[in-house]
From TrEMBL, chain A:
Name this protein carries in UniProt: DUF2092 domain-containing protein
InterPro entries, sorted: LolA/LolB/LppX, Sporulation_related
Bias-annotated ranges (Basic and acidic residues): 176-188
Bilayer-crossing regions: none
Coiled-coil features, chain-numbered ranges: none
TrEMBL record, chain B:
Keywords: Membrane, Transmembrane, Transmembrane helix
Protein name (database record): ABC transporter permease
Top-rank taxon: Bacteria
Pfam families: ABC2_membrane_4
Membrane-spanning parts: 47-67, 97-125, 146-179, 199-223, 235-258, 278-298
PANTHER family: INTEGRAL MEMBRANE PROTEIN-RELATED (PTHR37305), MEMBRANE PROTEIN (PTHR37305:SF1)
Organism: Streptomyces chumphonensis
Length: 419, 307
């Protein structure tokens, strides 16, 4: 019967079984996402003002979820650092990026502990990352950067901030001041600053007359219905920003996804959004951290003495993480910065150290390297070099001034010329 | 039933020429079960299988001693070079249980699947080249059931090979390093008992990772009459797939390769455990098992067995 050598028809039928199984599997791969994507949800109409109010009034304090973070800023150094360098070092790094790595690793440079947040979070600026977030009120927050067979966690529990890097088995500890910045809920620079909520707040803070805010339909994020709030530059022909879009949970007003589109770019330059979100209370054990026996613990105070950094040891630049331009732009730059123009076309001018351009910029050895990722320009400001990325352009002139802005190259040169 | 059982037993005695006594065979009403048992004993009695399992048991010892020597002078002060070497290797000095995860992470890309490839490739083709396959088919068990018994024995071998690595690593880890509460990758501390439970779950997850290759090997094994050819073809396929998986330009096909989710077992060390990748791995292995299992069945039940 079944074990007898069969006729050729029987044989063909039996071989059809694996083919059919493979076909069903292939169809499943193709169909399941198509079926799951049931289109944008129908939600009652809402005005932009109502939506902003909804975000402001959102009282969600407990949340856990997974955030996918992706950015394509077009900055060569950062890309190389995150792919080939310390952050995702070893087994997972793509070999094709290795060549650009030579100039040192900004993600690790100048810090002694692999668990030090200052170095690690810079790496998030480029590439794709998965974060796991848990929030339980303003005092207890955690964010983990998921890596291959490792995880980097930033845990805030009341007055304590711990960072644990499982790959190197090292930890970082800092005492936070009791109530930073008076009444502000989310301590800036704490783990919460990596969530879409914080990014949305920063985007909204930048809203003024030069900005148009509209409701741009609905969408579905992490299985939840959401409105899309679009924030776009108005009368800013030179801005590289097309729009910032915030998907806001229709039920409780939590920003679920923030995307930043650049003009002329198909894919979002920066995207941070939940792929999974749960508004229940996260398990309390998530906020307890005791360094394992034998783990190296770096204290923030010691590090601060060594490097002269701020008490909480967090990088100054963290606030500007998703690279949102506008109001926050000039905050961290200190006194030597000057803002030219306003709104989305604004350009920041920084007086660089004397002789920067004359010395290093034109030295013979640096020439090929500079030519590789910058462009020689001249104008009313004299000679200079423009460094271009998808979103931000920077001009360094001969006299050492640096002009930086989220504007096109032409806009930047124009601004530098009128200065 | 029982005369047929005896026939299979006789064939087995011939196949397992190395062992002095044949398997003690109690008559069983369940044909398939006894067939499965005889398959398993035959597989596990081969010198080749025992040697492979022996090497798997020695690997954790090597890793453990290497880590011990390396950190012995520095008083166990956890290395600062994150990302070097196999996963979890920096945590071993503080907690011996991490040797289990390191050993599995070190053997999973190549050595574990290689042993599975050898045993799977040998399953049908080995019998054919030894000339015992036709005797097996004399028994009225049917080819489908014989193949099922072989596949089941193969799955048990996957689990056994993984457990050998894990068990050896636990013993070496306990002997050379301190054991205690274990800090998960996410920074959450759990008691040792839960750590051991998670280690067991990881061993099962790793064994599941090998199912796809086992089915593939079984299919290759039905294609040829030479055991060596089937083994080397299976191991060759494994190497090819691993190389393709390492080429970033081919990342379009990566999600469909059986090793794609292999490292997902590490997710069991996070808190809370993200099941997505682990389930995706199980699903992918299931698809491989279904496709190549049925292909092996189609081939094996329709081909002329002459040797």
């Amino acid at each position: 019967m079944e074990h007898r050598p069969s006729t050729s028809r029987n044989k063909a039928m039996r071989y059809a079984v694996p083919v059919a199984v493979a076909a069903v599997a292939a169809a499943g791969v193709g169909l399941v996402p198509a079926l799951a994507d049931s289109g944008d949800p129908d939600l009652p109409d809402i005005t932009a003002q109502e939506l902003i109010t909804k975000i402001a009034e959102s009282d969600v304090e407990q949340l856990s979820g997974t955030v996918e973070l992706s950015s394509d800023l077009g900055i060569p150094g950062l890309d190389a650092a995150s792919d080939g360098g310390g952050l995702f070092g070893g087994h997972s790094g793509g070999p094709e990026e290795k060549g650009e790595d030579g100039g040192g690793d900004p993600a690790q440079g100048g810090t002694d502990s692999p668990a030090d947040p200052a170095g690690r979070l810079t790496g998030l600026l480029a590439g794709d990352h998965t974060l796991r977030v848990a929030l339980d009120g303003p005092e207890r927050q955690r964010v983990s950067v998921v890596e291959d067979a490792a995880e980097y966690s930033l845990i805030r529990n009341e007055g304590e901030l711990w960072a644990y890097d499982s790959a190197s088995d090292t930890a970082f500890h800092a005492e936070l001041p009791e109530h930073p910045e008076g009444g502000e809920e989310h301590g800036r620079g704490g783990p919460g600053s990596l969530t879409p909520q914080e990014a949305a707040e920063r985007a909204l803070a930048a809203v003024d007359d030069s900005t148009s805010v509209t409701v741009d339909g609905t969408t579905s994020v992490a299985g939840r219905d959401a409105y899309v709030l679009a924030i776009a530059p108005k009368d800013a022909p030179d801005s590289t920003v097309d729009a910032v879009r915030i998907a806001v949970d229709a039920e409780n007003g939590t920003p679920l996804r923030v995307t930043l589109d650049a003009r002329g770019e198909g894919d979002p330059v920066v995207e941070a959004g939940y792929t999974k979100v749960d508004f229940g209370k996260p398990s309390a054990e998530l906020f307890d951290f005791t360094p394992p026996k034998g783990t190296d613990v770096t204290e923030a105070d010691e590090l601060a003495e060594k490097h002269g950094r701020g008490m909480n040891g967090l990088p100054e630049g963290l606030d500007g993480l998703p690279g949102l331009p506008g109001a926050d732009g000039a905050d961290g730059l200190g006194e030597s910065a000057e803002v030219i123009g306003e709104g989305w076309d604004a350009v920041v001018k920084i007086e660089g150290p004397e002789g920067l351009a004359g010395g290093e910029l034109n030295s013979r050895e640096a020439q090929p390297l500079l030519d590789a990722f910058s462009e020689r320009v001249s104008g009313e400001f004299g000679e200079g070099r423009v460094f271009s990325t998808t979103l931000v352009n920077a001009l360094i002139t001969e006299d050492g001034s640096v002009y930086v802005g989220a504007v096109t190259k032409d806009g930047l040169l124009k601004a530098a010329g009128t200065d | 039933m029982s005369p047929a059982d005896g026939a299979a037993s006789a064939v087995r005695a011939e196949a397992a020429a190395s062992g002095p006594g044949t398997a003690v065979r109690r008559p069983s009403p369940l044909w398939t079960l006894s067939l499965f048992r005889s398959e398993l004993t035959v597989t596990l009695r081969r010198w080749r299988t025992l040697a492979l399992l022996g090497i798997l048991a020695v690997l954790p010892v090597l890793i453990g001693i290497a880590v011990k020597i390396e950190t012995g002078g520095g008083d166990g002060g956890g290395g600062g070079d994150g990302g070097e070497g196999p996963a979890f290797i920096n945590q071993i000095t503080n907690n011996g249980l991490f040797l289990v995860f390191t050993a599995l992470a070190a053997t999973l890309p190549f050595f574990l699947p290689m042993t599975v490839g050898v045993v799977a490739g040998d399953a049908v083709a080995g019998e054919a080249s030894a000339g015992t396959l036709r005797y097996l088919l004399v028994a009225p068990a049917g080819r489908t059931r014989l193949l099922l018994a072989k596949f089941a024995a193969l799955l048990v071998f996957c689990l056994l090979a993984t457990l050998v690595v894990a068990l050896s690593a636990v013993l070496v880890g306990a002997a050379l390093f301190p054991l205690g509460d274990i800090t998960l990758l996410s920074g959450v501390t759990v008691p040792l008992s839960e750590g051991l439970l998670r280690a067991l779950a990881i061993a099962v997850a790793v064994a599941v990772s090998l199912v796809g290759l086992a089915a593939l090997g079984l299919f290759v094994s039905t294609l040829t009459g030479s055991g060596i050819a089937a083994m080397s073809a299976t191991v060759g396929l494994l190497i090819t797939v691993q190389i393709v998986g390492a080429i970033p330009q081919l990342d379009v096909v990566h999600p469909y390769l059986f090793p794609y989710h292999w490292m997902s077992f590490a997710d069991l060390l996070r808190a809370p455990v993200p099941w997505g990748d682990i389930l995706a791995n199980a699903g992918l292995q299931g698809v491989y098992a279904a496709v190549f299992g049925s292909a092996a069945w189609a081939r094996f039940t329709t081909r002329d067995i002459t040797s």
